[in-house]
Design goal:
InterPro entries: Porin_dom_sf (IPR023614), Porin_O/P (IPR010870). 13% of the residues lie in helices and 41% in strands. The chain is mainly beta. It is elongated and about 120 Å long.
Amino acid sequence: MRLLDRSRTAVSTILATTVALCVTQASAQTPPGRAQGERPAQAPGGAAPAPGGAAAAPAPGGAAPAPGGAAAAPATTPGAAVAGPDVPGAAPGVPSPVTSPAGDATAEAFVEPDPNVATQDDLQGLRSDLENFKFQWQRERDLHTALSTRSLLIGGVVQARIGWSEQPVNTATSNDRKVTFDTGAAILSFNGILYKDYEEGRNLIYSVRFGASPQQASNNSFLNLLDAQLSYSILPTLGPEDWVLQVTLGQQLLPFGLEVPASEELKPVITNAQFTTKLGLNRRDLGLIVRGDILPQVDYGYNYRAALLAYAVGITNGSGPNTPDDNSEKDLLGRLAFTVPSDYNSLLRQITLGGSVYFGWQNTFLKDEKKTLSGKGVKRRYGADIYYNHYPIGVTYEFIYGQDDATLGTTPDDPRKTRLTSLSHVATFFYNWGEQFLRGYRNQGRYDDWWPKTYQPFLRIDLFDPSTEVLENRVDVYTLGFNLFFAETTKFQLNFNRRDDRTNTEGAQHELLAQLQGGF
C-alpha cells in the first residue's frame, strides 16, 4: 500500500510538472511587451499604428508636437483622463499619474507576472522530489521484492485432511487407529517463460513442482521433485484459432485418460481412482511428449475454445519419477480425443470421446524373499473415456484394460511366468449450482476478496479387478461426496466411501474424509 500511495503521488507530481512546463514554454514564445492573448493596439478609426520611435502627426490646427520628441497625446474621448495642465493638481508638462508617458518603452514592455507559471526554483524543487522518489522506490523494491533472471510465477497447494475409518488400522507403527489428521498434498510450483516470442507466440516455458503427495504411492514425507520440464510451442499461438503443437521434455504427468493427467488440485475426489495407483499410471515419468490439437472451435463471445481433435504421443523411461531407466526398453504412449462440434448453447457442447494406449516393459521378480530379478515382461494399458460437462450437470467414464507379465515361481529354473489381465471401470456423476464456473460472474467487479460460490454433490463408482484370472478379488469403492468452491483457489471436500473388498473376510468397510484445499 505504501508503494501504491507513492506511485499515485508520483503520477500527480509528473502531471503537474508537465502542465507547468507547457505554460512556461507558451509564455516564452509571447513577444516582449505583450501579455498572452493580448492583441496589438490600433489607432482610432482603424489606422495603422505609428512606427516605433517616430513622432506623431501634428494635431489639427497646426499645433506643434509635445516637447522632447514625445508623441502627441491622443484625442480626448468621453470619460478619458487627459495628461496636461488642464488636469487639476498636475504641473505643466508633467504627465498624469493615471497614464504612462507616451512612448515610454519600459511601461510598454512591462507585463504583470502570471502566478500560475512555474519558476526555475519550482522546477528545481520538483527535480529533487523526483530523485528522492526514485531512490525510495528502488530501496523498497530491493528490500521487499523477490527477483529472478527470467519471468517467474510462484504457486502452491495445501491440502489439510481428517479421516475416519470404520475398521481399525493396525500396522507396525500404529495400533487400532480410527481417526487421523494428515496432509493430502503440499505442493510448491515455479513456472515462467524462458523465451517469449512476441511475433508468433513460439514460447519456451518451464515448470518445476515440488511436493509431498499420496500420488507418489509412498510413505515418504519429504519434499520430492514432482515436475521438472521444458516446453516449446512449435506452431504460432497468438490467437485461440491457431492450432497447437507443443513439445515437452522432462519429468511430467502422462497423457492417459481423464484422471491420470489431472494434477492434485484439480481432482474432484479426495482419493484417486484405484487403477491410477495399482497400474502405476499416476507416477510422473521422464521422457519426451508431444501434445497438440487441430481444428479448434472458437466462440469469442463466451471465451470458449474446443479443439475438434486433441492428440498426444510420447516416449518415456517407464521406471517412474526421479529414477533412470531400469531396463533396455523405452515405453511408448499415445492419446487421441474427439470433441463433438457444436455451438456453445447446444446440449452437445463438451462431449468428448477419448482413447489412450501405453506400450511398455517392466522388470519381473521371483516370489522369493530376496525378490530376485528374473527378466522383463510386457506392460500394456488400453483406455477409453467419455467426458460430458454441460453446466449444471457432468458425467465422466473411464474403462481401463491392462496386461502385465509376472513370475509366480520362486526359483530361476521355474519362474512360472504368466500374463495377468486387469479391468477397471470408473464413473462419476455430478451436479453444480452456483456461479463460480460462469464466466460472467467471475469477470464482474467485486469488493475485496469476494468470489462466487458453487456447490457440487457427486457420486463416483470405482470398480477394479487386479486379475481376471482369479475369482472374487475385485474391489468396489462407492463414493458419495460434496464439494464447496467458496473462493478463487479454495474448496472444501467431503467424501463418504464404502469399500467392498472381496478378499476381506470382514465384509464392506466405510470411511469418512474431510479435506480443505487452498491454493496460491
